[in-house]
User: Fold this.
Amino acid sequence: METKIVKITEPNSKEAKETLRTAADILSAGGLVVMPTETVYGLGGDATSGDAAMKIYQAKGRPSDNPLIIHIAEPRDAEEYCHTSPLYYKLAKAFMPGPLTVIMSKKETIPPSVTGGRDTVAVRCPAHPVANALIRTFGKPIAAPSANVSGRPSPTCAKYVIEDLCGRVDMIIDGGECEIGLESTIVMIKDDSLILLRPGGITFDALTLVCESVTIDESVTNRMKEGDVVLSPGTMYRHYSPSTPVVLLDGDDESFIDFIHAEQSRTSGKCAVICYDGEEKLIGEKNVITIGAKEDLASHGKHLFTSLRVADTFGCEIIYAHLPQKEGLGLALYNRMIRAAAHTVKKIQKGN
Ligand code: TXA
Ligand code: MG
Assistant:
């Protein structure tokens, strides 16, 4: 398949409107369009078409029992596709449009293949002007998982979408770098409570300001075993992983530097390191990627997936990174990194 690659920098320009019209026509004809969002790029198709959903699973190489998020232009558009509640509108008022996905029981307007046969549907109203304009131009919701080949890190710029999906989709819209860089926070509504299934840009603390009862699902921090009953099927699959094994180091910054020095000599320089700004001066710049100042968690989020992809190109034996703390946005960083590392954590101490 030939993939059209187009750039949109100013969604309100005449040229952009024409491009969005072409993209919407592709969606109407059952085709696939990759769109930028504020979290990560999404691999979009018509959310009301079972055939389009099957095409998405195929293009991504994803099992068809792992459901898709439907993207809407305005919070109230959810009415047509699922059973909303006052809690949904409280969440919408606080966080939409934005990086929050809400799971509710679905209506028949969404075909079963979109939701992997589940009786619930995940709904998100993206803030990105290009995503929002595309949904409006199309006039229907867009089903979109992250625009990576299943198992690879989510793409936060068009370059990595092209690497993964060129030849597998009809169009890729390049809207520049994604602002947040981590996928949306996912919550499931259960009566007046929320279950946090995937942490993201909207933190646990922010959710508790809107809803008194928020629980963190076990799968956010723990390894799930085959046979476990999971609320979100995506948590069962290998995720975010580069081909080079990733090991997270649990210890203070001084021990981190000592450990890396020792590993650099053991592997004759064939170890990649993802670290904080400034640490490259202590460990040398070869095979090293910085993701921002130690305290700047938003920067870590923005650069996390790209750092994993770049580290994978170094041809090293192993990739080392700090084990993130679980507070605030750190919980989302922890959740992604622990899975990229297949839960491999090494405790380090000075002198080790
Ligand atoms: O930021 C995001 O959420 C991006 C952008 C493109 O919007 N999308 C995204 O989609 O990350 P995806 O498919 O890569 O991740 C969605 C996760 C999957 O793990 C899936 O299992 C879960 O949401 N999910 C979707 N619908 C669900 C449902 N009805 N019940 C439980 N889990 C669901
Ligand atoms: Mg994904």
